[in-house]
Write a structure and sequence with these properties.
The protein has helices at 6-26, 43-52, 65-75, 104-108, 147-158, 171-182, 188-207, 213-230, 234-246, 253-270, 277-302; strands at 37-39, 54-60, 92-98, 117-121, 135-138. By secondary structure, it is an alpha/beta fold. Helix 1 (6-26) runs antiparallel to helix 11 and helix 9 runs antiparallel to helix 10.
Amino acid sequence: MMMLGHNRLRACLMASLTIIVAALLSSLPTVSASQECLQIREEYDLRSLARNDNVFLIVYDDETAHVQKNICNKLRLHDISGKKIGPNGSATVFAHLEVTATTRNFASTLNVGQFPSFLFISAGIDDTSKYSDHTTIYKQDSDVLDTAAFSDFARKHVGFSPLGNDVFTIIFFDSVASRFVSYGNASGLNRLKQKGLALLVKFATLVGYKEPFKSIGKLYNRAFAMSLEYGIEYSSRHVGRMEHNLQSGNLTPAEYHELQQKIAILKSFSQPKTLTAEDDKKIYTHVALHIGLIVAALILILLPADRNSEEDEEPFDTPVIAKVIDDK
């Protein structure tokens, strides 16, 4: 066989593209998120959690379930992994307890008067401990949740408000930004590396289409472009100016949030994190996958279409007609 048929080569390229795209989608950078809301079904669950960790517990009924869902959804967007955020130095886990016919008696032992109720339960509970010795309850003055007072209560006990303000960063892009900044205002080979890292983020944002990844990705792309054009100091200069604008008090809530989001991303450049070997490995893996995707796609595009001509047939595909030889 002189060469591989075009159809088979195309099939191999399509298979390669499928594998590469699947790998990129499976390793798609995600918005920073690490905190989950655990469900409490019985007293044993709560005592087990509170044995070594603080517990921030949301107690609710069917009519106030929307409050629990809202807070737990926002918690998934907070990157607080690795922080010791309790006043006693213990980590805090978040949990929720729905009051039903099955759990009503247990809920009554927590001394909650209305729903939703929010409890901070300090670590150190054992099988004989009283909840009252470990529990601080957020008390509402009305049926409407006072978000400011609730946020103050949460910050006092866990270090941040679960209501959040929907300001995100993308962990992988933060790593790329840190490697980008490490080259300084570079020239030559390091300048090419910086441009390659900026292209890596641009290609990654093309693969991801969901929000908030898509809109945040645009802000990262702009930060990389401006840093290439105006220098590494671009982010530091603009963070200071934006923080000054935040304190002006002349912003609408939407403008205030927009500035906070931009500051969070620019700080990935002005305050780069220390990269680990695992961070660099992820960057190199994404570089290799994107290069493979581009090369395979170009070959597939440039490969001539299969011509079903006689010259492309295998040597033995054409039947040979035997001739009868007369014996003389």
